[in-house]
């Protein structure tokens, strides 16, 4: 018998009601065990908070404003009731349950496969007018509890305390498999639904690597001084007399972290570049696609896209690169004005084998051999317009694929000098990597450290916007932002300086499309846009629900390359607060 969506919603409610990880895992595993495999597969996918598998590039493209409109029509709620419901919970899904409390569902009960079919239809529908009837049909057929988790699933904000890693554990528990085997299969296949089927049929060993779905990125932990870097490596390696023997130094680049997939014999010209939030950003960098299309062996590389000055062979500031981000078409002039390179520092897959479990020293040797063979063939230039041939020097041909320089760390003095030289080259700082470290996708540990001595910065997400004043009275230029606190977001400040007029215009259009509630001058927005902000101090403050406020915050840049799941945490804010030499008086938030 098909599984009703109401049963799924009841499971989600039970999961949200407990903070105990083992209890959550047991609830999920028990639920999966009693379902037919296709329904179990959809359950696992939806519990992870996504409507489609990683390898499925489709998106629902349903924003908060459209969801709110559908909910208002289905519930016949007034604007004030919609506002009150959202403000009561800070969550449109929970508000939907309240607004539809007296709603009697019409039509046949929703099943998991009904939801799947509706998602397929939403993904193919073009524009709000085509999507609205589909949303209304789903809401009209929903019980209040179903509406809650339907809206949450569509908005990608489940808030049940369940991450994909826990779903993977539950799959293993349900089908008597090893958790490591499930996770490896998910990594290789990029499809949670397929892995559920494989686990249920005891076929996890058959999982094989497929290109063109991104693996998780290994992350580095921040460290603020040479002394702390040395000390933390001593703690990690257990070496007391010579903690730097197995440490490699690289520059920390100020570009876009990107994972390269190419060389598939079945698709020889296909090249894809994935950002940290797993989006394919290759269209913004067509010259890299062109340069890397010659690869004749399947490979996955980890590196950084940098704006590049070919005459001085050095990176340009991130601001020069930012105009390329998100573009589907790049003009010839932009290709000339902002050249880019792909600087590689790791290899994850080559020769039909994943290399993640090799130590960094071995991966590095493999990478050096690979780049030496392929880099020369990537020296291509963009065609220049004839009118420019005699007015400017001919463009240089330079390798678009470059190996990140790396040296062994021998002393604190060398590290201090390396940091200064990296800054002189226009890079952010230095990376320190344990030569014995394995590549752990999605993990942030002490095997990789990043040394930056700049004024403290935070990566935050915008939760509210308002119109500015004076010449900015017609644009949304003031941004309230938050950090993560578990599964919730806590506001820590508001900033309005640091962006160009063009960036503010782009953000204004974006936030109009992703408004949750419009209160005239101020509006709450979907937490989708990540910013990097700098500030002078952290203060205790009752102004924000975090209990903290940033003093004199200013926006350094828009971080479209960073997913919301990786913004900074409230614990990090408190850590900065406690590390300040002189704390400001309580309550002095300005």
Description:
There is one protein chain. Helix 4 (64-75) packs across helix 8 (128-140) and helix 10 (164-174) crosses helix 11 (179-189). The protein has 20 helices and 21 strands. It folds into three domains: 5-155, DNA ligase i, domain 1 (Orthogonal Bundle), CATH 1.10.3260; 219-451, D-amino Acid Aminotransferase, Chain A, domain 1, CATH 3.30.470; 457-579, Beta Barrel (OB fold (Dihydrolipoamide Acetyltransferase, E2P)). The relative contact order is 0.09. With 590 residues, the chain is α+β, with helices and mostly antiparallel strands. The strands form four sheets. Strands 3, 4, 5, 6, 7, 8 and 9 form a seven-stranded mixed sheet that branches. Strands 13, 14, 15, 16, 17, 18 and 21 form a seven-stranded antiparallel sheet that branches. A hairpin with a 4-residue loop joins strand 5 and strand 6.
What would CATH call the architecture of the largest domain?
Answer: 2-Layer Sandwich
- The best one-word shape is globular
Helix content: 25-40%
Helices and strands: which structural class? alpha+beta
By DSSP (H or I, 4+ residues per run), the number of helices equals 20
Specify the CATH homologous superfamily of the largest domain. Answer: DNA ligase/mRNA capping enzyme
Low-confidence stretches: 382-390, 582-590
The whole-number mean of residue pLDDT values reads 89
> Whole-number radius of gyration?
25 Å
- Quote the beta fraction: 15-25%
């Amino acid at each position: 018998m098909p599984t009703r969506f109401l049963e799924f919603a009841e499971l989600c409610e039970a999961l949200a009601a407990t903070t105990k990880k083992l209890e959550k895992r047991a609830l999920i595993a028990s639920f999966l065990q009693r379902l037919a495999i296709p329904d179990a597969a959809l359950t696992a996918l939806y519990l992870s908070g996504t409507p489609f598998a990683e390898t499925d590039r489709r998106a629902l493209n349903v924003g908060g404003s459209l969801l709110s409109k559908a909910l208002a029509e289905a519930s016949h709620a007034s604007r004030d009731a919609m506002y009150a419901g959202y403000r009561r919970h800070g969550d449109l899904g929970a508000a939907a349950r309240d607004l539809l409390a007296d709603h009697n569902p019409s039509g046949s009960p929703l099943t998991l496969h009904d939801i799947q079919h509706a998602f397929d239809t939403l993904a193919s529908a073009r524009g709000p007018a085509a999507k609205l009837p589909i949303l209304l049909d789903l809401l009209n057929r929903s019980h209040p509890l179903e509406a809650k988790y339907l809206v949450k699933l569509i908005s990608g904000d489940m808030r049940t305390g369940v991450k994909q890693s826990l779903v993977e554990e539950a799959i293993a528990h349900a089908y008597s498999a090893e958790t490591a085997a499930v996770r490896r299969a998910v990594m290789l296949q990029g499809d949670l639904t397929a892995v559920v089927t494989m686990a249920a049929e005891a076929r996890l060993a058959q999982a094989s690597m497929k290109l063109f779905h991104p693996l998780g990125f290994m992350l580095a932990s921040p460290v603020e001084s040479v002394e702390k870097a040395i000390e933390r490596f001593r703690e990690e390696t257990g070496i007391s007399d010579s903690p730097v023997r197995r440490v490699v130094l690289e520059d920390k680049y100020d570009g876009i972290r990107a994972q390269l997939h190419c060389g598939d014999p079945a698709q020889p010209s296909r090249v894809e570049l994935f950002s940290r939030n797993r989006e394919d950003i290759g269209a913004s960098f067509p010259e890299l696609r062109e340069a890397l299309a010659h690869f004749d062996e399947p490979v996955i590389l980890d590196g950084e896209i940098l704006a590049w000055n070919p005459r001085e062979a050095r990176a340009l500031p991130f601001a020069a690169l930012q105009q390329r981000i998100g573009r589907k078409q790049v003009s010839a002039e932009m290709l000339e004005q902002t050249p880019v390179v792909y600087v590689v520092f790791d290899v994850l897959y080559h020769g039909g084998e994943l290399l993640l479990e090799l130590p960094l020293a071995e991966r590095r040797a493999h990478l050096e051999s690979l780049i030496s063979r392929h880099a020369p063939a990537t020296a291509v230039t963009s065609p220049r317009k004839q009118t420019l041939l005699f007015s400017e020097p001919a463009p240089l041909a330079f390798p678009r694929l470059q190996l990140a320089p790396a040296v062994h760390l021998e002393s604190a003095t060398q590290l201090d000098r390396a940091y200064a030289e990296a800054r002189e080259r226009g890079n952010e700082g230095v990376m320190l990597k344990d030569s014995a470290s394995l590549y752990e996708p999605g993990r942030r540990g002490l095997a990789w450290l990043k040394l930056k001595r700049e004024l403290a910065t935070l990566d935050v997400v915008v939760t509210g916007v308002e119109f500015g004043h004076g010449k900015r009275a017609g644009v949304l230029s003031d941004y309230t932002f938050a950090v993560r606190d578990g599964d919730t977001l806590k506001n820590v400040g508001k900033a309005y300086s640091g962006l160009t007029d063009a960036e503010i215009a782009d953000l204004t259009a974006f936030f109009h499309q992703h408004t949750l509630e419009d209160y005239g001058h101020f509006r709450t927005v979907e937490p989708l846009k990540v910013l990097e902000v700098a500030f002078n101090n952290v203060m205790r403050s009752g102004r924000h629900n975090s209990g903290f406020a940033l003093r004199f915050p200013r926006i350094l840049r828009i971080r479209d390359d960073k997913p919301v799941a990786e913004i900074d945490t409230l614990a990090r804010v408190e850590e900065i607060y406690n590390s300040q030499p002189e704390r400001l008086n309580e309550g002095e938030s300005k």
